[in-house]
Design goal:
CATH architecture of the largest domain: 2-Layer Sandwich
Number of strands: 18
Radius of gyration: 20 Å
Shape: globular
Strand content: 25-35%
Number of domains: 3
CATH class of the largest domain: Alpha Beta
Largest sheet: 5 strands, antiparallel
Structural class: alpha+beta
Helix content: 25-40%
Order of helices and strands: HEEHEEEEEHEHEEEEEEHHEEEHE
Number of helices: 7
Length: about 300
């Protein structure tokens, strides 16, 4: 990346918010990935907009990420600027039955804030490891519910016009692991959710039940990106993988979890290439056996 670009970014952000050759394995739940040329963590709408304007003027590539819970970065890293909307951009506020969360706020934290304020509707999200921006982008869900269930309004940056805009939930084209954000050049900035008053004891019990289910069924002791593949229509990815005899199947340090076949885990020594090779192998073997194409739920960065 050009020195002029880096200097301009440092003129916008605090010095601690601009890192050079930052290892992406430190910012992804898979714990793999080579360095990004530049890694920045803006904390306001204005900083986000100003940084993107600089990158565009300098004709530099950039990528927006949350906390990396659904991202597989190549071992070679990313030749461009990663803009992380996470800890520096994570405020949550509660007004009556409304919760407003910045894109970088953790979904789990929003669910806990709802519980603390006696608000029901987000219990299903107490185990979703991503950020609110990512949850809206992919309409994240668990235990039969999805984020569309509670979203009232989404505030975004329209990258085409570099203008902030608002969309009601009904305008967001939500469907399974999909939203308007995947159709147009938008960045989620803030999410407003409408919940309902509830009994704190009932809310807490429901959340604890979900947490116990997650602990019992998912390989939480190993780095992963959650469910590796989307649910195919009429099937469950994990069952197809298990029925294909792939539970425990391993390439390098990447392994199909023995606990839940829908998860590919890093046993501790995996490279990003190991994980990708295993994903491709699983897709091929499931298709050969059942003629069902598994689509990744994981996002990719830095791959040629």
């Amino acid at each position: 990346m050009k020195d002029s670009t880096i200097s301009a970014l440092k003129g916008i952000l605090p010095e601690s918010a601009v890192k050079i050759n930052e290892p992406m394995k430190s910012h992804t739940s898979f714990k793999v990935g080579g360095p990004a040329d530049v890694f920045i963590t803006p904390g306001t709408d204005e900083e986000i907009i100003d940084c993107i304007k600089v990158l565009r003027a300098e004709k530099e590539k950039y990528f927006i990420m949350g906390n990396g819970s659904n991202l597989l970065v190549s071992d070679a890293g990313y030749r461009g600027c990663v803009i992380q909307l996470y800890k520096n951009y994570s405020d949550i506020s509660v007004f009556g039955t409304n919760i407003t969360a910045k894109a970088g706020a953790l979904v789990i934290k929003a669910a806990n804030e709802a519980y603390k304020n006696g608000l029901s509707g987000l219990e299903f999200a107490c185990g979703i490891p991503g950020t609110m921006g990512g949850a809206v982008t992919m309409n994240a869900g668990a235990y039969g519910a999805e984020i569309v269930k509670v979203v009232r309004l989404v505030r975004m940056l329209d990258l085409k016009y570099m203008m902030k805009c608002e969309y009601a939930s009904s305008e967001m084209n939500f469907s399974y692991r999909h939203s308007l954000v995947k159709e147009h050049p938008f960045i989620v900035l803030e999410v407003e959710m409408e919940l309902m008053k509830g009994n704190p004891d009932v809310i807490e019990k429901r959340m604890n039940d979900y947490k116990e289910q997650r602990k019992a069924k998912q390989p939480l002791d190993y780095p992963s990106a959650g469910s590796t593949f989307k649910r195919p229509t009429g099937h469950y990815a994990g069952k197809l993988i298990e029925d294909a005899g792939l539970k425990g199947h391993q390439i390098g340090g990447a392994r199909v979890s023995d606990k839940h076949s829908g998860f590919i885990i890093n046993t501790g020594t995996a490279s990003a290439t190991d994980i990708l090779k295993l994903m491709i192998d699983v897709q091929k073997k499931v298709f050969d056996r059942f003629h069902v194409k598994l689509e990744p739920e994981v996002c990719f960065l830095g791959w040629k």
